[in-house]
Amino acid sequence: MHRFSKKTKRALKPEIKLDNVVIPLVNNIKILGMTFDNKLNWNKHFSVLKTNTSKTTNIIKILANNKWGAQSKILHNVYKTLIRSKIEYGAIIYGSAKSTSLEKLETIQNNNLRLITGAFKSSPIKSLLCITGEISLKKRRKLLELQYAFKIASYLNNPTYNSLFDKRYNNVYYLQTNISKPIGRWIENFFNAHNINPKHIIKSEILTKPPWRPNNFEIDFSFAENNKGNTAPQLFRNLFKEKTEIRY
User: Fold this and answer.
1) Is the pLDDT of residue 9 over 70?
2) pLDDT tens digits for 88-101?
3) The dihedral of CA 136, 142, 147, 152: what is its sign?
4) What are residue 30's phi and psi, to 5 degrees?
5) How far is Cα 108 from Cα 85, in angstroms, rounded to an integer?
């Protein structure tokens, strides 16, 4: 059993039994690859990420040998496939964590980029990003959040649509500036700044019929009335143009 609360004192500790057996109360719980802690600060999840990605970082360190190592492009692909994909999994969920906690993830990327490029530890981070064509994980999270928001906005019947664009609790976040704002508030500010109305985003239509059951097609065989060997190509072009002008 897991309880979410930022209170350190007087926190409720419910005792729930199942078949007269008390369900233990844990501080961390893993759901679909995401490690949730009781205070939702994501420190445990970031710690697990650092441990898991360090193994792949050691592989990159070996492959980056100066004498027989792989090319930087290959090392970069290894990083994007095995490390960055793990970091960005669930980024739209933990993106509301404190900036000091999120900086731990930037450190993971910067260390790997130094191995990929063979740069010194004193090399500026901006130079590493420029050489590798990468952007900071903070900007990538914002990009992923925007992609997610546009995707949800195109489906009005999506269960998360109201949760993402709901404005009922805006006053709470505006009055209490020390509270971490969820993704919905950041998306709202971005849309307002760029004059984007989620209701005006093109909606995706769900097909009523499966694609493997198409409607009856109307096929025009009038071109077959002319023998290809005895007909000039220009005549076929004129016939095609005439058909398209009539129909479209």
Assistant:
1) no
2) 999 999 988 888 99
3) positive
4) -105, 120
5) 12
Q: Could you give phi then psi for residue 36, rounded to 5 degrees? A: -90, 130
Give the SS3 label for residue 54.
helix
90, 33 contact by CB (below 8 A): yes
Q: Tokens for 24, please give them.
A: 């233990």
pLDDT in tens, 68-114: 778 889 999 999 999 999 999 999 999 888 889 999 999 999 999 99
What's the burial of 148, exposed, middle or buried (CB within 10 Å: 0-12/13-18/19+)?
middle
Residue 137 CA to its chain's centroid (Å) = 11
Alpha carbons 234 and 226: distance in angstroms, whole number: 12
Strands 17-18 and 21-22 come out as antiparallel
- Owner of token pair 């710690």: 47
DSSP string, 88-143: HTTHHHHTTS-HHHHHHHHHHHHHHHHHHHT--TTS-HHHHHHHHT---HHHHHHH
Which position has the token pair 């990083």? 79
Q: How far apart are CA 115 and CA 61, in angstroms?
A: 6
Provide the Cα torsion 4, 7, 12, 17; round to 10°. Answer: 30
Cβ 3 vs Cβ 11: under 8 Å: yes
| Location of structure tokens 């077959």 | 224
User: In this structure, what token pair is assigned to residue 141?
Assistant: 């999270």
Tokens of 28: 């961390």
CA-nearest of 156, 155, 136, 144 to 186 is: 144
How far from chain centre, in Å, is Cα 89? 7
Round to whole Å and give the CA distance between 45 and 42. Answer: 5
